[in-house]
């Protein structure tokens, strides 16, 4: 508890680590609206350890971005230690992601798909807790049974975990099958361990925060989607969406981030406004926007449309607006997005499967029917109007010096790719034109081999 109280400042209102969403500008906005602790997005430990550019972007922070916890995913104890050593000077703690349920985590064998490999997890947590100067925390999902969930938590604590975030859903509860998180599992873990426990799941408004703390006994609550749709939920506020949107864009001006992050945040802040059919054109414009100025323009257009209703100078008739009848608050206010329950989703899937549905048709700007693949390409091009359309090049008829294949147009050895690859392999060379990096990779392998040998010698000594 000393770590939670003295180092972190006893936070109860916490913003979750979110891929492509909890970047520096959003963290600063969340802190302004009451968040007391933030996490970086989930970082891939192997990429973080080897890629300096990825590392610098991931560690972007500032003095007021504290307290901050850096979260890693991975399944190799040595690689995760290497990444954590590089990050420990930039944060208050290192968190291990054991809760991501997405398909990419399954393919990469990390996140919630490690929860059955207790010896490996014990090794990872133990190694990092022994070698780092900052505490190790973990974020997990529950098992089907309370007993196994509690045993899981106890194992992580015995390995050296200093704070535990428990998500009250299983790894199968995701997407349209998300459903409600079960707080009783959080309560059981809290009563079984002697470290701070944070509850994750079902936090959509401030009333949920108070209720969760009372029901679970957790020291704090963590929210992800609730924060994205209403960053002011920790302050009992539902501001008009353009207020946090413009504040966020001003922060992006100072602390740049990828345009895809900006687009994602604005789609969530204005989710209910953009769901109104008459605003479909604004939705398309937001999807195609590719500059900060364009994002600001679209936000101001939506502000001009709905500010008169917000100020009361115009009367809002929600019965004339489809998709807003079920909202308690007007659609321009930041508020939760609530999915249909899994049972309702499965019922709709079954109903749709019984219908004979026609394949969706796509058309270009001239009304000609095109494929879905072609439509996606046109949308990508529309987001980059400054980039000229690609013009097919004439096939290079000059032959490779070693065979009958045409040579690569950028090959520095005047060879085709196959011959160039053979040459680079035999003579320890690189070819920038073909992006063949034999020499570079061999040198990197030797460097890390020497580094591992040095580490082993230090361990022995």
Automatic annotation (TrEMBL):
<protein>
    <recommendedName>
        <fullName>tRNA-dihydrouridine(16/17) synthase [NAD(P)(+)]</fullName>
        <ecNumber>1.3.1.88</ecNumber>
    </recommendedName>
</protein>
<keyword id="KW-0819">tRNA processing</keyword>
<feature type="compositionally biased region" description="Basic residues">
    <location>
        <begin position="371"/>
        <end position="385"/>
    </location>
</feature>
<dbReference type="InterPro" id="IPR013785">
    <property type="entry name" value="Aldolase_TIM"/>
</dbReference>
<keyword id="KW-0520">NAD</keyword>
<feature type="region of interest" description="Disordered">
    <location>
        <begin position="349"/>
        <end position="390"/>
    </location>
</feature>
<keyword id="KW-0521">NADP</keyword>
<dbReference type="GO" id="GO:0017150">
    <property type="term" value="F:tRNA dihydrouridine synthase activity"/>
</dbReference>
<keyword id="KW-0560">Oxidoreductase</keyword>
<dbReference type="GO" id="GO:0050660">
    <property type="term" value="F:flavin adenine dinucleotide binding"/>
</dbReference>
<feature type="compositionally biased region" description="Basic and acidic residues">
    <location>
        <begin position="349"/>
        <end position="363"/>
    </location>
</feature>
<keyword id="KW-0288">FMN</keyword>
<keyword id="KW-0285">Flavoprotein</keyword>
<dbReference type="InterPro" id="IPR018517">
    <property type="entry name" value="tRNA_hU_synthase_CS"/>
</dbReference>
<dbReference type="Pfam" id="PF01207">
    <property type="entry name" value="Dus"/>
</dbReference>
<feature type="domain" description="DUS-like FMN-binding">
    <location>
        <begin position="15"/>
        <end position="238"/>
    </location>
</feature>
<comment type="similarity">
    <text>Belongs to the Dus family. Dus1 subfamily.</text>
</comment>
<dbReference type="InterPro" id="IPR035587">
    <property type="entry name" value="DUS-like_FMN-bd"/>
</dbReference>
């Amino acid at each position: 508890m000393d770590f939670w109280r003295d180092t972190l400042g006893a936070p109860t209102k916490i913003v979750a680590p979110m891929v492509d969403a909890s970047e520096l500008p959003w963290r600063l906005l969340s802190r302004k609206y009451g968040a007391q602790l933030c996490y970086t997005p989930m970082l891939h430990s192997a990429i973080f350890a080897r890629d300096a550019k990825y590392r610098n972007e991931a560690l972007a922070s500032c003095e007021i971005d504290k307290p901050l916890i850096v979260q890693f995913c991975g399944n190799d104890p040595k690689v995760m230690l290497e990444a954590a050593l590089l990050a420990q000077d930039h944060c208050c703690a290192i968190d291990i992601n054991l809760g991501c349920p997405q398909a990419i985590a399954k393919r990469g064998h990390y996140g919630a798909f490690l929860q059955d490999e207790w010896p490996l997890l014990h090794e990872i947590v133990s190694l990092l807790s022994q070698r780092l100067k900052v505490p190790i925390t973990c974020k997990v999902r529950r098992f089907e049974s309370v007993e196994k969930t509690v045993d899981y938590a106890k194992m992580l604590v015995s390995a050296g975990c200093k704070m535990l975030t428990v998500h009250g859903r299983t790894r199968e509860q995701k997407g349209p099958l998300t459903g409600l998180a079960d707080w009783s599992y959080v309560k059981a873990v809290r009563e079984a361990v002697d470290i701070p426990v944070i509850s994750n799941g079902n936090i959509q408004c401030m009333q949920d925060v108070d209720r969760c703390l009372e029901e679970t006994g957790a020291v704090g609550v963590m929210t992800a989607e609730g924060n994205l749709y209403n960053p002011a939920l920790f302050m009992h506020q539902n501001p008009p969406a353009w207020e946090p949107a413009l504040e966020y864009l001003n922060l992006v001006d100072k602390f740049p981030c990828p345009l895809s992050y900006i687009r994602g945040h604005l789609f969530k802040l204005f989710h209910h406004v953009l769901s109104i059919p008459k605003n479909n054109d604004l939705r398309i414009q937001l999807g195609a926007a590719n500059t900060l100025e364009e994002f600001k323009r679209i936000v101001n257009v939506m502000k001009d449309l709905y500010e008169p209703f917000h100020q009361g100078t115009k009367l809002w008739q929600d019965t004339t607006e489809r998709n807003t009848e079920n909202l308690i608050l007007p659609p321009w206010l930041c508020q939760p997005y609530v999915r249909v329950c899994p049972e309702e989703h499965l019922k709709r899937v079954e109903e749709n499967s019984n219908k004979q549905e026609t394949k969706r048709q796509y058309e270009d700007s001239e009304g000609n029917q095109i494929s879905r693949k072609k439509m996606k390409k046109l949308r990508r091009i529309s987001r980059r109007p400054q980039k000229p359309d690609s013009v097919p090049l004439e096939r290079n008829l000059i032959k490779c010096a070693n065979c009958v294949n045409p040579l690569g147009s950028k090959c520095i050895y005047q060879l085709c790719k196959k011959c160039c690859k053979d040459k680079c392999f035999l003579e320890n060379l690189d070819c920038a034109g073909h992006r063949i990096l034999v020499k570079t990779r061999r040198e990197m392998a030797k460097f890390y081999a020497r580094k591992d040998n040095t580490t082993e010698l230090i361990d022995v000594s």
